[in-house]
Amino acid sequence: MLEIKHLRTLVALRDGGTLVEAARRLHLTQSALSHQLKDLEDRIGVSLFLRKTKPLRFTRAGLEILQIADQLLPQLRQCESTIRKLAGGESGRLHMVIECHSCFEWLMPAINHFRDHWPDVEIDLTTSFHFDPLPALTRGDIDLVITSDPEPDPQIHYQPLFRYQSLLAIANQHPLTARTSIEPADLSNETLIHYPVERRRLDIFQRFLTPAGVDPLATRQTELTLMMIQLVASGRGVACLPNWALQPYLDARLVSARPLGDGIWPTLYAAVRQEQKDSPYLQDFLSVSAETCFERLKGIEPILAP
Questions:
Q1: Which residues are in coiled coils (predicted)?
Q2: The whole model's pTM is what?
């Protein structure tokens, strides 16, 4: 018998194009996804797609199920959203602060989708360049913080969104392009360009330079990712950015990138107050945000359940 999870699995396989990408979108391991597909095919007694074909090709049975999935899943999502509204009321407030300053690309579509379904929830959005947002969250001044720097607090619930790799962006002509990875000492003669936040809240200091007792030759700050890329490309310095934020500039060959040491993989979280974490509209926003991330961002990894 077909289940909703089977419909979602086939849609992810079609939209992702490969088992690896489908598993990433579904927050599953590849082996778990393969087992789920085999179980489905065993249940219905027919193959749903052709193995080892590029691009991926579905059988007639697979196409029939996909047609049903495309009709049913949007209706189901709308129904779930409506039920959440009925259960928790349709009005409220969602004031957000972004510590991850490259998040607008995926966050804005999530906000637009949310606004369409929760028109009576007041939405506001700002960055945390000039203040520490977590105390403001506990006070109730704001309702959600996107951060990769969680601080233990019994009043705050941290919902993991995804893992990403921190990379060092360098000019295409930079001598460090000859290296396969970057060591802390490599930055002792470099100008490090970063967002205007405290060092303790920047991955490259907290997880890479400070533990090694290394400081860059100089630092330079900018609020705009594009300006950061332009400075790097023109040889004015180097910058540490998430792999998914760098990917468009790498695809355009504007800059190069190298991993830091053996690889630094922070986790991006949505921080909310414990008392509010079960709010229906907040849960709907987090669900839509996670879905948007894996649709739009390359190089991120799901947080697999233990």
A1: none
A2: 0.68
